[in-house]
Amino acid sequence: MSKVTRLDYCQFLLVSQTNYTLTYFAEHSPGFSHDAVKRYLEEDKLTARMVWESVRGHVVRSEHGYLVFDDTVLDHRSSFKIELVRRQYSGNAHAVIKGIGVVTCVYLNPDTRQFWIIDYRIYDPDRDGKSKLDHVREMLDHALTDKGLPFRGVLMDSWYAERKLMLHIERLGKVYYCPLKDNRQVDETGGERGYQRVDSLTWSEHEIQHGKLLHIKDFPKGHQVKLFRLVLSAQRTDYIATNDMAQDSSQATQEVCDLRWKIEQFHRETKQTTGIEGCQCRLARIQRNHIACAILVWVRLKQVAQETASTVYQLKQGLLDDYMRSQLRSPAIRMQFA
Q1: pLDDT exceeding 70 applies to what percent of the chain?
Q2: Angle value at C-alpha 234, between 254 and 246, nearest 5 degrees
Q3: Contact, 270 vs 298, CB < 8 A?
Q4: Alpha carbon distance 181, 199 (integer Å)
Q5: Which one, of 139, 122, 132, 188, lies nearest residue 162 by Cα?
Q6: Quick one: which of 29, 42, 43, 28 has its CA closest to 1?
């Protein structure tokens, strides 16, 4: 029986369309048994560093670049004994579900609008004691010290708009843009009227266009950020906090914040094209290796998509083209009429 390699497993994730189980892999790979596939996933030890090594030569660096942070939940609602699965809130499901949390970091070049996954962490506080904020800070520091990436600022969700992290970004000499939750307490009067909810602030026409300065509760005395009110729809208004005091335009602020959705594109594409949620094995090590391989598959798909001016979806669907042509020429099951 042949020994399964990382390349074998990644190739399986790349070509498979709907089924990403070890059984399905073994059934369609002559020479590979289910036990051999499982043994590979138990013995290998893939890390986020390997993902960085696979993309570092392709990253187009920019002094205007941004690091984008967010997290996603790999849906395992039907699983009961997978070690990394825990109940947590999923923004995609808009509910608390059972799944594996993954905190991700994307490097974005605003000049070309290209982006690359450069780091990720599995959210597993029961074993490593780290919060999602701890993971973000660690990846942020590594981007500077280990990877040496140039970037201007950090884009993140309201979940990460936390005092320690925001002040840490400031100490690094970087700017941040992040939405504040509607109930966040702020003061625009220098202590005269006290704190109020951010969504209860009044806005002049000038402030709507150019933002306003204010203090966020629990931040150091005298510390100010600039706040912009962005009306995105009749049902949604975002309040964007930034330490970029030179920013003077709500329109420009919205253009910067729109870049953050590139990380949502990464999450969506990995879930829909790599089978990142498809492994049902219980062991944490197998799940970690499977997730790493799925991200490596996305990296490869993204590289080819950029080279061929296509999308990862077109590439994935294109794998079925030869099958369709073959079946239409010589069907395995021929249609008959009575």
Answers
A1: 99
A2: 20
A3: yes
A4: 9
A5: 132
A6: 29
- Using DSSP's 3-state secondary structure scheme, residue 139 falls into helix
Residue 206 CA to its chain's centroid (Å) = 35
Strands 114-123 and 196-197: unpaired
The amino acid at residue 263 is I
When the pLDDT of each residue in the chain is averaged and rounded to a whole number, the result is: 94
Tell which residue, 231, 313, 333, has the closest CA to residue 265: 313
3-class DSSP assignment, residue 210: helix
Is residue 291 a contact partner of residue 100, using CB atoms and an 8 Å limit? yes
Environment class of 307 (CB within 10 Å of its CB; exposed 0-12, middle 13-18, buried 19+): exposed
Contact 227, 241 (CB under 8 A): yes
- CA-based R_g, the chain, Å: 23
Does the pLDDT at position 19 exceed 70?
A: yes
Contact in structure between 296 and 51 (CB atoms under 8 Å): yes
Residue 21 phi, psi (nearest 5) = -80, 160
Looking at this protein, which amino acid is placed at residue 8? Answer: D
User: What separation in angstroms does the CA of 214 have from each of 185, 223, 224?
Assistant: 10, 8, 5
Long-range contacts of 133-140 (CB under 8 A, 24+ apart): 133/160, 133/162, 133/164, 133/165, 135/103, 136/69, 136/103, 136/105, 136/160, 136/165, 137/164, 137/165, 137/168, 139/67, 139/69, 139/103, 139/105, 140/67, 140/69, 140/105, 140/168, 140/169, 140/172
The yes-or-no verdict on residue 255 having pLDDT over 90 is yes
State pLDDT tens for residues 194-204: 999 999 999 99
Query: What does the chain come to in residues?
Result: 338
* Predicted TM-score of the model (pTM): 0.93
| DSSP per position, 74-127 | EE-TT-SS-TT-EEEEETTTTEEEEEEEEEEEEEEETTTTEEEEEEEEEE-HHH
Torsion sign across C-alpha atoms 314, 320, 326, 330: negative
